[in-house]
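Box 3.1 A note on notation
Throughout this textbook, protein chains are presented in two layers. The first layer is the amino acid sequence; the second is a token string describing backbone geometry. Keep the layers aligned when reading.
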Amino acid sequence: MDWRLSRVESQARSAVLASVKRLPAGLILAFFCASASAQPIADSVSGFSNVQGANNWHYGYYNVTADTTPGYDPEHDFTPFPVFEPGNLGSPAWRIGSFWTEVTATSAHPHAGDAQEHWAIRRWISGTTGLVRISGHLAKHSAGGNGVRFTVYINGRKVFERLVSGGDTAGSGYSFGVGLKEGDRVDFAVDAAGDIFYDTLVHSIQIEPAEWVMTSATAIEIGTPTVPGTTYQLLRSPDLANWSPVAAPFVGTGDTLYHLFSTREFGTPGYFKAEVVPE
């Protein structure tokens, strides 16, 4: 996972300002409440097109069976879909003719069985540099099967994962923050997580700038993207050299978990990160 952190600059009786500092791998993104006025940079539904690359969106698949080097490599394992035609549900889709694998404006379907396993991938090429919020909704189209897995990779690094159970047709939202640079490949992959039955995932993706601002000089909200079942410890440093734990260890749920602190609790500007606690 690609880790980032944010610096908090606070002054008495003034609004807290947040600036983002990109750091080496090994640090988790600690971010602040986003401005409600942010306009989307990308939308998977309104930006869907029958032209590869339109609105920075590309549509393809990963042939897991044919991969001689295990593990997803965005440089070599992403193959653009060859055709655009009506899909499994009748909607216009990017797909591979004789397989279940496809991507539509509002859904994706992987393939498993017939000695082939494919992930369905929706790729967005970042045209921006900075902190963004990625959000949307995930749900099964029809109840049945063992569910599907939705995973987000940035240049091949897994930054988010959620298993949508077989009967979850209501679904739920997701949201997390991450730092991007222009040209980054953000891949939204759907795989069968086992059998191929009832594996249409209805999903949406919105990407918007994370204009981290604080409206109060007394509060700091730290959000940590998490992996289910993984234990984290939040740390703080005034100088990026000396780190001290703050709050109690917490267990990830797959969503972004938040901690709220008083700025007066620390007294000086500082950095935050969350580290995985070894089992």
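The first strand starts at residue 5 and ends at 9. The CA atoms of residues 15 and 25 lie 30 Å apart.
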